[in-house]
Amino acid sequence: MKKYFRLAGFGVVFSTRAKGEQIGNALVDVLSELDENNTLVIEFSGVEAVSYSFMDQLLRQLILALPQSTKSNKTLAIAGWSMDLLPVVDKALERRNCQLSSAHSLGRTDERLLICHGG
User: Which of 50, 53, 66, 118 has the most CB atoms at less than 10 Å from its CB?
Assistant: First the structure.
């Protein structure tokens, strides 16, 4: 099962670490309530701009919250990003040693599994 977290519900422009922390805390709360073997999809549709600082802080919090146990099968995905957001998202993913799995479409053509190795 997938649960969607729509960033546009919090605004359309995200530019600070403080905002990244606020949204990250909300995502961590949702992730903690997610059943095993489920996916939390971070939905970027409707978001016009994100800063590197925002994305870096958001990823930092998600990496810390991801289940460290191999017994847990909760996963994260990203969907709905525009080409305008891609350079910033890519830079933050690279900095945090994360990638979007191009091999794993989760239903929609723009949904990609978020794989992080720490950082």
Answer: 50
